[in-house]
Design a protein that fits this description.
2 copies of one chain form a homodimer. With 612 residues, chain A is α/β, with parallel strands linked by helices. Chain A contains 17 helices and 27 strands. A 6-stranded mixed sheet of chain A has the order 12-11-10-13-15-14, with helices on both faces. In chain A, β16 and β17 form a beta hairpin. The interface between A and B is large, with 47 and 47 residues.
Chain lengths: 612, 612
């Protein structure tokens, strides 16, 4: 086993383990930090600056051109060029980060002002006089005279006497959209927060934003407790249809509240200073959160109950933010393309891209969107949970003990999450292994693991001895029993390979159909954007090698991190982005693959592995 | 004792007892039925048509001019002309009724369309197709395409699958203002109701309207259970300030819900078909209902927390109407002039009156508004509860056994509520008695009951013997011990007279100040409109005799019934009237009498009785 190197990213102190020689960009993605790479990691834009002082490769030609001698001396490097050779520390400045930048400066149509739906106004109303005893409500309205047509909520009205009576007569009005939702005594303008949620089938992530600056204050994530009712959307829908809707809803609301409490503890920012929450998720997750009957999502024509975004008092769902705070759930596109995809489109600025660009979010379902000159076509395919570790004999999620990176040389080199003894294989290593097996000639393009007597003559012994008889064919032993945490060998079986073929075939077929719909060839694709937690950990060349992605230069493939969450943050930080989300949701042309005659043939072809 | 005549009003079957010779108009008012009299009861407009077949006077000259021989033969008569001589039945057609008419046809600025904030749209959405699986929400929006910018509420969204799946694909959208609040399966357009509440300090009245027609379906009233915490607004405010706000709020909400249940039972219309409620009340009642801290209403400068009208989900207050129904509380004018006065202004069309018009609502407080050419000036005086029976030795409310009408001739003639044996004197009889005592010379203009030796020589013995020594002066015995229900005499004391002087003096002083503010003399007053339950029962000539009202011909004095409730109904039936209420609330010039130096002198003068 090759040793991994340990990289600590600052300022957050997150750790990643990668194989020696990996570029900083990849290690950062592994730590959940998405570095800005507008040039696709070619070393031409200079946007991915980080600080690394030791344990890394010498500056490349590209770095010498883009960084001054002083900068290099200060440890400044490009994340796409610098390779990690030993344990080290990397500092990623805010200006190089994808999400932060995007929210503030990169929305479609150029730089975006910070303009959240919720805002504060500090007022100094005039006192009432006996000759004309003006109502409290009229005194604050006079001080808000520049804003027309605000609706005063009862709960806010109730706060008026106390808020106006305290201190020096200064009062802060909290306004959401056109509603006055609260009055706070004194000047509280400095406290204005919102939270963005990405509700995934498996994982729920929360991000607390300071809405004065747009900066992320804290992040937390948890497993969606609905997994107890089934690990895919179909089993959740079944449970809901059998009378479990309220139970599923309560489960996810409980999870959001647990995240809010965690964020409160970690950031010290009380939940009642969170005035708005935004949510993205797949259509089923949105429906379950909102208590919308999801039954029709599971039957033809898979029509959602609600497409449009909905705004409501957060208290209607029992969300523990400010008592009159709001919840905005972003719009869906179709039954299998949800607001998470709208978030991806927002965060990647797809609507504004002139060159053909593909965004892919790989999970249990693969959602993909192709953009061309403002036209957006989307589809979804049921990739199945293979990349998440399910239906793979030794599959597991990217938890400690998961093999997450595999290279074949004279022998097998692996990298394990947490640098622990290996317990199983996660999705990215699954792709690595299949790609490497193809390269080594151990796996043929039809997806068959060759018998020992069929293996290439030049195959090193270290690999050859790993091909052993298994159920329905041969297995490839990645880690022997003596090195695994379980005392059992960790192997990839012939059946595992078939699962990978089904998963990648479904996604690739969807991509091919989008290309054809827009009349595009592989060479036309200016960029492929990989979104979602899983996308961040894929080795791009391996994804192309197994045919998951079309054969484009791997520099054109970019990781965009949790772009769905970034989209939720944008909708939180800007009403203009929220409006854009609604427009995106309406404009995207959705292809229901099940209704297309050509899908079966595309799928069958995409199941095969490329010849080279 | 003179016999009363018994009059039954149809179609409601309400009974009133009046002295023989009373006009139908007065008897109707006594039964709570307000007849339309645009001409002020002069017999010139012909609007007050009723049907009376016997027990009444012969047609007057005015009736012969305005009614054809056929009409007269069919029993048609004018309510302002026809006098009741014996027990009889009177039918009051809808076209002659004040409230009903007003809502449909007589708002300020001419006839008003029925245009409630809540309305229904029957939709037949297209079915979803596999090639383009349209969301339920988009299908109904397409069918609602002519209405822009409607907001879909979560609760309504949840109803979509069931509503769209039932029956023939017809679904009814319930829209409030710009919110879609519900979807109902099938065509439910025929079911659209609203309820208007008048929340008085003593009595709460509810009126159920069919919002397709504007017609009243049922009415119910109850004593405000807050009376347990004090019978005037000041004691309620004290209780609220001492921690009892929630208790008072729950009490009145409980009362509204009890009225809703009563109306449901009586009308057979389920509460969940009531989509909106409107409320008028004095400013304190509004504050307590809404849970607004009323403490500042009891201290200088008596500024309300909220002036403007508020709209909210009825569920926020626990009101048991449709689960997403709305509650609209009409705007106040000032701390002591509430939305009930705004209702009076709406219902009487005061804003549109060119000629000087005074509206007076007499209760524990007297609220009065003077209108002149679109200018409105209002004030409020603490009349005290004398007219409601409090602080009067034998005073009582107009309940069975209350003497409600008194005339002095050779002896005393009385009319008693329910034709029972008398138990006490209610407000209208108090005014009658004082006026008659003045006319008979038993009471002098300073308010002193004369001693037997000072009485006029020509005074009949039947009256003379009723003046008996009492505490601090003399008493006038209205009913002897042998005729009363209690076995005690029912008398008016010198102290009672002083209470009447205080009450009428306060109201009259307010009227005088309004007149002066607008530069008006008594002779300029085109009309005095008496609103409120009490106003209906006052004999106009007697109110003038005691100086409660200025000396105008009594034809100019009109009863307008529960105009506050009529205003609440108008705001329920028409968003335009609701907007007008807001405008009225802002435009009225409020005079705080306590801040006016001239008030004390006006009050002192108004305490005296007129010389003749």
């Amino acid at each position: 086993l090759a040793e991994s190197v340990r990289v600590v990213f600052q300022p957050e102190g997150k750790t990643a383990f990668v194989l020696p020689g990996s570029v900083v960009l990849e290690a950062a993605a592994r730590a959940g930090i998405v570095v800005e790479t507008p040039c696709g990691g070619r070393g031409t834009c200079g946007k991915c600056r980080v600080v690394v002082r030791d344990g890394c490769s010498e500056p490349t030609e590209a770095e010498r051109q883009l960084l001054s001698a002083d900068e290099l001396a200060a440890g400044q490097r490009l994340a796409c060029q610098t390779r990690l050779l030993a344990d080290t520390v990397v500092v990623v400045p805010e200006s190089s980060r994808f999400g932060e930048q995007r929210i503030l400066t990169e929305g479609e149509g150029g730089p975006r002002e910070l303009a959240p739906a919720v805002r504060k106004r500090v007022l100094r109303p005039e006192a009432a006089a006996l000759e004309r005893p003006v109502a409290d409500s009229d005194r604050v309205r006079a001080a808000l005279a520049d804003v027309d047509d605000l609706r005063l909520e009862l709960a806010a009205a109730r706060q008026l006497p106390l808020a106006l009576g305290a201190g020096d007569g200064t009062v802060t009005a909290v306004v959401h959209d056109r509603d006055i939702i609260a009055f706070e005594p004194g000047d509280t303008a400095a406290r204005l927060h919102g939270v963005a949620f990405d509700v995934g089938t498996t994982t729920v992530v929360a991000s607390l934003l300071d809405l004065r600056t747009g900066h992320e204050v804290a992040v937390a994530s948890r497993t969606n407790p609905q997994v107890a009712f089934g690990d895919d959307v179909v089993s959740r829908i079944s449970h809901a249809t059998e009378g479990g809707l309220a139970e599923l809803q309560q489960a996810v609301v409980g999870c959001l509240n647990a995240l809010l409490r965690e964020i409160e503890e970690r950031s010290g920012i009380p939940r009642d200073q969170i005035y708005e929450a935004t949510v993205v998720g797949n259509t089923t997750m949105s429906h379950l959160l909102l208590g919308l009957e999801p039954e029709q999502l599971a039957r033809i024509p898979f029509a959602p109950v609600v497409r449009e975004g909905l705004t409501m008092p957060a208290a209607e769902l029992g969300l523990e933010v400010h008592e009159r705070g709001r919840l905005h759930v972003l719009p869906n596109i179709a039954g299998f393309v949800g607001s998470d995809t709208v978030g991806v489109i927002l965060a990647t600025g797809l609507l504004g891209r002139g060159e053909p660009t593909l965004a892919v979010d790989i999970g249990t379902n693969g959602e993909m969107v192709m953009a061309l000159d403002g036209r957006l076509v989307a589809c979804s395919t049921a990739a199945g949970p293979a990349f998440e570790g399910a239906r793979i004999r030794h599959g597991m999620r990217a938890a400690p003990g998961a093999i997450e990176q595999v290279r074949l040389g004279e022998d097998v080199a692996i990298s394990v999450v947490g640098n622990a003894r290996p317990r199983g294989i996660c999705g990215s290593a699954l792709i690595d292994t299949v790609a490497e097996l193809l390269r080594a000639g151990i796996l043929d393009p039809s997806g068959r693991l060759l018998a020992p007597d069929e293996l290439p003559a030049e195959l090193p012994d270290g690999l050859r001895r790993r091909v052993v008889p298994g159920e329905g064919g041969y297995d490839f032993v990645v880690v022997g029993a003596e090195e695994s945490a379980t005392g059992e060998p960790i192997a990839l079986t012939q059946r595992d390979i078939r699962q990978v073929q089904l998963a990648k075939g479904a996604i690739r077929a969807g991509i091919e159909i989008l290309k054809k719909r827009l009349g595009l060839a592989d060479s036309d694709l200016a960029a492929i954007l990989l979104a979602g937690g899983f996308g961040n950990f894929i080795r791009r060349s391996n994804a192309v090698r197994i045919g998951l992605l079309p054969p484009v230069e791997h520099e054109r493939i970019r990781f965009v991190g949790n772009a769905a969450l970034a989209g939720a943050k944008m909708a939180l930080a800007s009403v203009e982005d929220r409006r854009l989300a609604e427009e995106v949701s309406r404009r995207v042309e959705y292809l229901e693959l099940g209704s297309l005659g050509e899908f079966a043939a595309e799928f069958a072809e995409a199941m095969l592995f490329p010849e080279n």
